[in-house]
Amino acid sequence: MSILEYNGGAVVAMVGKNCVAIASDLRYGVQAQTVACNFPKVHKMSDRLFVGLSGLATDIQTLEQLLRFRLNLYKLREERDIKPETFSALLSHILYEKRFGPYFVEPLVAGLRAEDNTPFISGMDLIGAPVFAKDFVVAGTCAANLYGLCESFFKPDLEPEQLFEVLSQSLLASVDRDALSGWGAVVHVITPDGVTSRTLKARQD
């Protein structure tokens, strides 16, 4: 088993029309044993920026605290919120800096650009090699399932409610076919007016 699969988990981000959504499952496990079902892997970095972290649970918590620290420093120095592109570059730099003893985490970044409300998503591997997408990015133990379902359901310029529905159905159907993720999910839809967060019920087996 890969160390990235030790605790299980699934994260997915998808773009819509002037909105973006990011979701994760809630399972925290030790290989096949489920320990808890209240472990979200998506973290709010600012009003219009979220990061999803899948991989080893201890590294997820360490990296999330480090990102908050670096963001607070950025805010103090720059006196403004960080742009999604800048945050993605910062995260990539942090991961590459530790490439010889990496954080076992595959992050996704989702946010809205403040100037024109266009969505931004990116994903990267554990040493920070980024990929920028115009539709969706996925990570976690059921990434293969998520790719197939997101490709089937995704359409350009989805409204926020449609985006929520597409993302939710893709995630729930994917984790049902993966023993290492699931047990509930949480979805955040970011729009110019604010963030809507919803918790989904899922199969508990």
UniProtKB/TrEMBL annotation:
<comment type="function">
    <text>Component of the proteasome, a multicatalytic proteinase complex which is characterized by its ability to cleave peptides with Arg, Phe, Tyr, Leu, and Glu adjacent to the leaving group at neutral or slightly basic pH. The proteasome has an ATP-dependent proteolytic activity.</text>
</comment>
<keyword id="KW-0539">Nucleus</keyword>
<dbReference type="Pfam" id="PF00227">
    <property type="entry name" value="Proteasome"/>
</dbReference>
<keyword id="KW-0647">Proteasome</keyword>
<dbReference type="InterPro" id="IPR033811">
    <property type="entry name" value="Proteasome_beta_3"/>
</dbReference>
<dbReference type="GO" id="GO:0005737">
    <property type="term" value="C:cytoplasm"/>
</dbReference>
<dbReference type="GO" id="GO:0005634">
    <property type="term" value="C:nucleus"/>
</dbReference>
<dbReference type="InterPro" id="IPR001353">
    <property type="entry name" value="Proteasome_sua/b"/>
</dbReference>
<dbReference type="InterPro" id="IPR023333">
    <property type="entry name" value="Proteasome_suB-type"/>
</dbReference>
<protein>
    <recommendedName>
        <fullName>Proteasome subunit beta</fullName>
    </recommendedName>
</protein>
<comment type="similarity">
    <text>Belongs to the peptidase T1B family.</text>
</comment>
<dbReference type="GO" id="GO:0019774">
    <property type="term" value="C:proteasome core complex, beta-subunit complex"/>
</dbReference>
<dbReference type="InterPro" id="IPR029055">
    <property type="entry name" value="Ntn_hydrolases_N"/>
</dbReference>
<dbReference type="InterPro" id="IPR016050">
    <property type="entry name" value="Proteasome_bsu_CS"/>
</dbReference>
<dbReference type="GO" id="GO:0043161">
    <property type="term" value="P:proteasome-mediated ubiquitin-dependent protein catabolic process"/>
</dbReference>
<comment type="subunit">
    <text>Component of the proteasome complex.</text>
</comment>
<keyword id="KW-0963">Cytoplasm</keyword>
